[in-house]
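Q: Second attempt. The first request was missing the SMILES, so the protein and adenosine-5'-triphosphate are both included now.
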Amino acid sequence: MSGFSRLSAAVRWRLAMGLGLACVAAVASFGLLFLSGWLLAGAAAAGLAGVGAARAFNIVLPATGVRFFAMARILARYLERIVAHDGALRLTGHLRTWVYARLAPLAPAGLTDLQGGDLLGRFVSDTDKVAAYYTDVALPFLRALVCGFVFVAVFACVLQSAALALAAGLLFCGLLVPATIGHATDKLVQVGAKKQSHIQAELAETLQNMGEYLLLDAASGRAAQWQVQQSELDGARWKLDALEGLARGLITIVTFATALVVLMLATQAYRAGQLSAAEIPMLVLGALAAFDVVTPLPLARQAAAGGRLAAKRLEAACAGQPQGNTMPAVGLPSAPYDLVLQNVSFAYPGTVTSVLDHASLTIRQGEHLGLVGPSGVGKSSLINLLFGFYAPCGGRMMFGGVDVSTLRAEDLAGLVSVAAQDFHLFAGTLRDNLLLAAPDATEAELSDVLDAAQLTQFVQSLPEGLQTWVGNDGLRLSGGQARRLAVAQALLRNTPWLVLDEPTEGLDAQVEQALMAAIIQRCANTTIVCMTHRTAVLPFMHRVVRLEDGRFYPEGG
Ligand SMILES: Nc1ncnc2c1ncn2[C@@H]1O[C@H](COP(=O)(O)OP(=O)(O)OP(=O)(O)O)[C@@H](O)[C@H]1O
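A: Got both inputs this time. The predicted holo structure:
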């Protein structure tokens, strides 16, 4: 994902410093054991051989070295955790912003293939995995490469044959072992990720619709399905763990085998007078310590497979093309804000039934138009087309003299307010939800629109009034109350156009009349398009149009 590497430039120095510190910590760890072997063996030999030998062995140098490496290891590890993880967290932040910026223009049409839970999973855990590629994959492999060279070079300064043995052992564990488990790891990670995203998507849907499952007495069946899916996921994870354990076990065997070979070579060199006795444990302990940098590599290989897969999934999610508004902007709409449809045809992607079939309609600014038609005929789809969420298959759609396909949703949002059927209450207070539409609205304006939406009495009946918490965790509004809140929100925006999708559904006749009268009084000069099945609403409109078989017909004509 090319954009990711550009993004990481902002945190690149942190990542580089993290790598530097990780290498320092690993070298210090190696140095600590390397010198400890020398110090312990030298001190022991000096103790056995008496005072003369004790004087001959310079204990100060290795002792100082041991202290230095011990301190350096602690400090470097501490700083590495801070710097590298800070860098990785910043990377996650950049990545999430990057992904969000690419996903947002695709909504809603470009994201219909993804279930909500799956999309959330991609946005949260896939971005995590991709950003963790640095700490979990790049850092361990690069540290092993850099430190492997350093360790072999240090060994070569003491005993070349031991350096060769160490190099062979490190290459086997650092290259051959991860490469050998690579293919199987990729496959198992793929299987696990597929199951995981399936479970995530289903879990989100189940939790959202828990009530329905209980009403249908399907909750226990659902739980049984979960158990099956979870055990399949556990099976895939177990296999991955077993593979990683096998690779680690192999590395441990090679580590001890290398240490044994180094011991034999060092003993030979001692006998040949090329090494002192104290240097034998130094090399053996050094060899054992050197393998610390390759031991995490099987796990890093697993993280690499997960990270690459996550990057692919993110790429796929972001790769969709926005369905509408793809042409370059040629100007903003200007008054009069008339909407003109000329021979517009439209079918939702992947469907064969035309919602609009060479349909033509003109709605003049200031007009109050009732749009009627059988359920599912395509009335609400007009909003999707107007806002460019979907592009017509043919024909032309102009708003305020500008082709709608050249407008962005945010350009239109300043001119058209929509009280939609599938209105969503965000978790927050009633006031928060209203202010979402007009953040600068005054108290007087809020109470004005609540009045028009026939909600004043309801809000006054709440102990906390507009401060009442609503949304998922708060007070649930009835269908009619929620719809009126949507109307209040739309009214608050004071735009030249107001689109009302079934505004009076679920209301009794008296409230319906009062609501429509208040809207008309307040929006006498506003263009109103009211999609409705309720005939009682139609007398409030200047004109009524019926949508049928993909075309618009004057009602009664
Ligand atoms: N996102 C979508 N993807 C595919 N098909 C869709 C989508 N949204 C709506 N449809 C289909 O398009 C047709 C028109 O739907 P629309 O919601 O516009 O009808 P409507 O006239 O507003 O219905 P109602 O009066 O019941 O609200 C329906 O057959 C519906 O199933």
